[in-house]
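3.2 Worked example (two chains)
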Amino acid sequence: MLRLFNAFSFFGDVVGRADRHAVVRHLPRLRGDLGLDAVVINAENAAGGFGITQSTADELFEAGADVLTLGNHSFDQAQGIRVIENEPRLLRPCNYPQGQVPGRGAGLFNVKGYNLLVINVHGRVFMDALDDPFVAVERELNAAPLGDVADAVLVDMHAEATSEKNAMGYFCDGRASLVVGTHQHVPTADARILPDGTAYQTDAGMCGDYNSIIGMQTEEPLRRFTTRMRGGRFEPATGDGTLCGVFVQTNARGLADRIEPIRVGGQLAKQVPVV
């Protein structure tokens, strides 16, 4: 172990402009109040609800994010391809075909003198059939083992099926500090520490306006559910955003001593106080 990496947070999918602004408004205070050594944010919906751009990535980095992860909307914005190629702090899923897709799926980041390994991986159940996520994560864990090369390891499992996310948690147990799910945009109530010391939550939830249908204005999703007809594109909801994520404290082995949900601002924070 190189040094004690004490506390970090992960925040779920940021959906659109209003919710980027919520990150800008709340994150600087949270970093100080919680004594965070690092912050990782899933930003795959940051640009108009779909994908990433240079300006949206810059806005989140300037607000206090150290690393951004993506998901199935990684390449939805044409200009986002260049950002994914050139920005080392921006990760797309590691199980895209190796050598054929721009960007990186994992990175070892020096943050405040600590080595933080971040792995972004894409599920396959009810999702696009990318390469095996378990093989891909195994490769990245072996490249920078916890307690040897990495002071802390965070795995963002971007997946639809809760069972697949749960399986990834146990697959990484004892080898990662945190395995956390994204993509579903709804925070789950199962934050816990697994038997061998890995913190786990099935879905972190979104950083978004919860007066919506998973971050989108309700009219178009309702039309599609009730009529099976498309009337336009999905548009991000623009109300007050809630920041949803998890707070993790680690021990000298880089494993978790504590995991707590974070919910700040907007509707959900009225029910669940900040850590």
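3.2.1 Second chain
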Amino acid sequence: MRAWTSPEVPDLSELGLGRGSAVQVFDTASGALATVDPEERARLYVCGITPYDATHLGHAATYLTFDLLQRAWRDRGLEVVYTQNITDVDDPLLERATATGVAWTDLAEREIQLFREDMAALRILAPDHYVGAVESIDLAIALVERLRDRGVTYEVDGDVYFSVDADPDFGGVSGYDRETMLRLFAERGGDPDREGKRDPLDCLLWQAERPGEPSWDSPFGPGRPGWHVECASIALETLGHDFDVQGGGTDLVFPHHEMSAAEAQVATETRFARTYVHQAMVAFEGEKMSKSLGNLVLVSRLRADGHDPSAIRLALLAHHYRTPWEWADDEIVDAQKRLARWRDAFAAGGSEAAPVVDAIRAALAHDLDTPRAVAAVDAWVDAALAGGGAGDHDPASGRVVGAAVDALLGVA
């Protein structure tokens, strides 16, 4: 699958600013901050979209968070290998295609292209591996076969299920009790009440062919893979096991990340991911922003209305990734004003650049604290625009601070 073109990222070490420090992020599995600082190469997997509608700000916030993590790693001097999937065959996509009379493949390609455009406009670094479910069917089949060979699968009316109790660490990602798991499983695409299952939490690995739906040949009969095994197989193929960070929104903690990890760990007998990082939900009109509810603020609509993509990015940066928040129209107005002030100050210059660059780096290193980073830039900008003392004004510092804001926060 073709991704988008990444923006150029300034190398701050070439400006004499050295390298950033080790990054800490909040690990959902341990419930504590974890330092993610591999020796040479950082490996990241972030779950992608199901392309049946346009990119909303909840999506954008998630991909921005992991863009920041990549930027902090690269500033540290690390090589980054980043994989993102696209669930380009799934029930919501097929249902939307049927409802609108559009071929599901055409609907998927249209929305994937719009997503590419939104990500490029927001200056999100593109994944190294951008992999669709459809093009990775063979990977999913191979992983289901490995699980079958380990004796941890069974069939219900032709559908193949995974026995979650095969993973002794099941529940270790979310930390949820069984009652919570059952409730969320039912709410988020699971089928806990299906007759014939050995455990209500057992999850679908391979869905047998349904009338009028796409299917592929497999050793288990024609059908298509389940959601969780898709991501598990793509991650193992492109990143290997025990990779550094599995990322996504908090709505993916359970069942998706829990189930993907369980399937991969049973198949490989090794840890799936070292750290699980999750973006909090963005609300609008009192509810979590979601396609199913239809309460969406679309990146493409904000762009079409003439808002600078860097202002959209700044509006998101004003909120910490672990804090739920609600979008209001004044968010973009405030961000546009902030962007204009920043650009004026970068053009004019101000006090020494190194202290504000250090402050941005320190904020990102401590759990991607973007409000703190933005506040540090605001303070420098306020002083620059106020004139400051003639003795501490450096016209060249604006260029350096602007490069740091570009490299670390992605704001052009």
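3.3 Remarks
The chain has 13 helices and 14 strands.
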